[in-house]
Amino acid sequence: MQSFCKNNRRYLYAAVGFVLLLFLGLIYSWSVFIGPLEADFGWERSQTSSIFTISILFFWLGNVASGFTSERLSPRATILIAAACAVAGFAASSFTTSLPWIYVSYGVLCGFAVGMGSNGVLSCVLGWFPGRQGIASGALMMGIGLGSLVLGPVVTSLLGSVGWRGAFLALAVAFGALMVVGALILRAPERQSNMVETTLKDSRRTTEQNAPARALERAESETREFTAPEMLRTRAFWTFMLWAVLIGTGGLALISNAVPAAQDVLLGSMDEAAALMTATMAMGSISAFNGFGRLASGFLWDRKGCRFVTVLISSVYAVSMAACAFGAATGTFAAVVAGFIALGTAYGASIATTSAMIGSVFGQRHYGMNYACALANMVLAACIGPTISGAVHASTGSYFAAYAVFFALAVASAVVALWMRVPHRAAKQKNAPLSPAKAARSDAGASR
């Protein structure tokens, strides 16, 4: 009975976490605001792209802050702090009068709020699913991926009815109410140390019955919980980071300019208002398949492991850039949409893979801080990708050359993925240990 209640409770927390992450995923809908802001203030594409870059930088800093607050306070306190920052950021954005203003209001405050809130939710909910990090993180982070699809058209409608200032105010109210309610519902599980001890006891019990002492040592090694400094000293972490930067560069570049990129292909065939709505729907395809990619990669991670998943993501990413380049060169909107779909799948999968790797390879106890360190890849990608795409569009009036650059990065990421050596469960030794069952078989074979 107690186990039944615990299972019901954790699925309730997962559902609440999904809804919170759905709203937090609105940070990827920035491109719907580009047109109205450029029209009102006369800003250039490189300037509006830099707002998104700043938001990603502070998204990462919010994750870092969440790593501290989740361990020293609680995930609930973390989410409440994030709610306050989100309300302040969206409300202040509605009063924008200059570029530096929105750099701070949207870029700093909203980016920080989304990073802190999403890490707080993940730190809380994933603790209820030990041993299923891949599928649990994928399902949760699908919420972030679907944010633009579900809420992007709502924001677009608000832009048409109340303008961008009214839309920002509405988002301030919605974020504040939802995040406060969600924070009051969510509750962290018992200390991760207790969960680790339970896992270790189970491993000991199984191993003592089926294998000699050497297998027991390997089982203990598999329960290693890495601190951030320990994780940063591993080659596996830095190899994965390089791969993630290569993937994220093109992903964030296109996500931050999805609506304008689609409009470039559409404007010759329809009026501006229809092109904006159609381009927003195309952006929604990125969001929809972003969510699908996160869930699918979590499923595959648990079954196929790191190399299979990362190589597959790199391949899909390359296909997406090739399709977008073809669409930009020929004016074929269907090719652009196909590229958006593939990109959403690849980028979403890369984010969920990052979460799964940190939890399953480096342990759950220090997940908040370790995950924040891993998300530093987004800072580099956000600085490189949107800068390339904005500069290329400003100089050529097209994104074609940018797609070609990102295709080359996709090929490079596939090479890195093939070279990567990441054990499914890290250990103290240089080489990954076998699982208790495999260790028992290995030792039994050796004794024979």
TrEMBL record:
Q: In this protein, which residues make up the domain named Major facilitator superfamily (MFS) profile?
A: 10-425
| Pfam families cross-referenced by the UniProt entry | MFS_1
Print the keywords alphabetically: Membrane, Transmembrane, Transmembrane helix
Q: Which residues cross the membrane?
A: 12-31, 51-70, 77-95, 101-128, 140-160, 166-186, 236-255, 275-296, 308-329, 335-359, 371-394, 400-420
Give compartment(s): Cell membrane
The UniProt annotation puts the region (Disordered) at 196-222
Provide any one GO MF term from the record. Answer: transmembrane transporter activity
Is Membrane one of the keywords?
yes
| PROSITE patterns the UniProt entry points to | MFS
Membrane-protein topology: Multi-pass membrane protein
The cross-references to Gene3D superfamilies, in alphabetical order and at most eight, read: MFS general substrate transporter like domains
Q: Which InterPro entries match?
A: MFS, MFS_dom, MFS_trans_sf, Proton-linked_MCT
One Gene Ontology cellular component annotation held by this UniProt entry:
plasma membrane
Q: What is this protein called?
A: MFS transporter
Q: Which organism is it from?
A: Candidatus Aveggerthella stercoripullorum
